[in-house]
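Below is how a single chain appears once it has passed through the pipeline. First comes the sequence as given, then the structure the pipeline wrote out for it. We keep one example in the README because the format questions we get most often are answered faster by looking than by reading.
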Amino acid sequence: MKTFIKKFTPVVLLLLQLNSYGQMTYIGLKEEANVRNAQSYLFNNMVETYWPETQIIDNYLYVPTINGIYRKNLNTLNTVDWELYAFEGIPIIDFIKNNDTIMAATAIWSNKELLLLSTDNGLTYEDYTPASFPYIEDKGRILRIAQNPHNRNTVAFMHLGQGGVSLSVDFGLNWAPQNTFIGGYQDWFIDFNPNDTTNIFHTGEQIYFNSYINATYDNGASWSTVESIPNHCTHSIAFHPFDKNIIVSAGEERLAKSTNQGLTWVTVGFVPEYIFKVIYDKENPNILYASGDTHGDSDDLRIHRSTDGGDSWHVFYEETIENSDGILDIHLYSDKLIIYTLVNGVYYLDLNTFNVNNVEYENELVVYPNPAESFIYVKSNYTINNVKIYNLQGNFVKVINKTSTFIDLHHLSSGLYFFLIDTEIGLISRKVLIK
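Resulting structure:
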């Protein structure tokens, strides 16, 4: 049994008041939760993959780091104070919590302490690694833990690569392997469909660079790959608040949607980022937010938004922060977007400073005729900088670098395309069918 003393500390000791960058407000953990620094340190210690998963539980934001789990009361956004909550000195990648009981996955290259368990709200902990877990170099590690929202003793684990998925129905006392699927290059996501918990999804990228979305519809008895795209990775999935059939996935410069519980998927947007997270506004599921990391060198942080249930997307907010490296995770809490960056710590964006339900400017952009044949018009009350055209597979087809609204389509074959329209108010995507 190991013990540590919980600490309450302002994590930026010389900071006397909050710093604001534009409309995003910094609330701490820039040094403590720097993901890129953590990845470099862990790589030198034989750990190849580290993408920590943040959570909001009972008004607290929890952030796993290489020094344990920090948490912050979200009713105190006017300070940069955080509590070093659990597992001090241990690199944590993900965790689940039942009242005072915490089970955490570590980023340790070992056959021990892959899992830790605390039954006193993080004051003490013990090694909880099952002997049955695979240990093949780094392959026994757990990258994600998912908890059944309707039966919190049922837990699914996503292992790295050869380990596949394991399932426990008694909060980790006993485990059973659930599939033989081998990811191996990037394994990112596992979770229960909250509207049908017999349905579990497991996503990432295979060793030959094809994305995968694996799914079971019978509590893990059988699994199938419901989507796989070349040169792509599926990072996460967002479930509709109450409709089991509607699901949105986030990946490398691509957002996709399913309306039949993940059996088939349709691309709904191409964006210039690797999208790590997409979330629903649970009060209004027509509104979604997505964000990630710009592919290539950029100091821009962008948040994309949909107001039609995920069918089309535009840039909702953009801010430049020097030496930034993208956004790993976002949450929606009390009309605020909580933003966890890769190197700059945690921020929030107050949506009350925006008219988030005003979609007038989107409707002022018109693409017609649609379906189209030999030509199409793009019209807007805002200045159009350029229009980029992508095919359904996400391949770039053409860019129109002029403000003219007439686009000749004679060179394009029949099919579904995405027009990414760069305007003075941001990027807006539209689906276009060419006959």
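The chain has two domains: 2-353, 365-434.

See the next section for the split statistics.
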